[in-house]
């Protein structure tokens, strides 16, 4: 009995000790926790307020950007409308809006790409942002960027697998339900870009390398010049290329697609394009086009320049190698492109060397248009 009483006393003693410990812990710790909670709340409130403020500012900034974008798109729309009106006016004045059987008056659907899924129609003009928009059309066709990067097939080949060449009837139908566009470039800048890309830097064993060799044989070695004056490069000089181009036009030969005039390539007077983009304002024009077509989630403004350096920076270097009569002859070849898209020869003609024979310049000035068109000329 004594042992039981002793054990009960020990248990009671431990209970008292535990209760005391719990009491003192509660008295000491709870106030500290309350203080920490209050302090933490004071520190967290500014953070919470700051996050709310930042969210508000972000929404305000986005709204401001949307307003700015809408204002910018409105200005771009006005500029594009002016281009459309100018094109229609010049087509009528030059008599290019009448359907006929020649290359100037016969609608040419061959180079168009029609995306019926996204309601987009594009005439692919080589050397006028064609690489950029061939990429975009391939993206819209379902090819992944990684696939396009690794594929060894020509982008045009890939595109034609998804966008076969349309018939004229199918193209006209697509124009009624789609946003149609083409991208143009200053004719002489586009010509220079084509020369540098396809002839000066032609790859071995290609069609253009063979063409370059033929130009050299005809316009360098068959002309009676002192041997000391012969160029040494293994590609045609820009002057030799221009001589070849002028002779081809005089003989009414079919020109290479990379320097064929746009008026024959896309026959823009035969179709009512919604957007006429210029490479000089390409970034803004692309932005407007993509927004109008609601394709902002799929593609973006691109300029994938596959050439070597900016062509604009090379204009003076190359056109100073030509005579003024040669530049005037080029103007005659591309005169309709100049007029339809409101470009000028100013800034180019001044770069040319004075002709040694004044009759050469006179012949270039009075030279008739190479293509058959009975309508009055404006140049």
UniProtKB/TrEMBL annotation:
MF (Gene Ontology): sulfotransferase activity
Any single biological process term in GO: carbohydrate biosynthetic process
Gene Ontology cellular-component annotations: Golgi membrane
Localization terms from the record: Golgi apparatus membrane
Major enzyme class: transferase
E.C. no: 2.8.2.-
InterPro entries registered for this protein in UniProt: Carb_sulfotrans_8-10 (IPR018011), Sulfotransferase (IPR005331)
Keyword Transferase (UniProt): yes
Membrane topology value: Single-pass type II membrane protein
Predominant cellular place of this UniProt entry's protein: Golgi
This protein's UniProt keywords: Carbohydrate metabolism, Glycoprotein, Golgi apparatus, Membrane, Signal-anchor, Transferase, Transmembrane, Transmembrane helix
Lineage: superkingdom: Eukaryota
Transmembrane residue ranges: 21-39
Similarity comment: family membership: Belongs to the sulfotransferase 2 family.
Protein name (database record): Carbohydrate sulfotransferase
The organism's taxonomic lineage, starting at the top: Eukaryota, Metazoa, Ecdysozoa, Arthropoda, Hexapoda
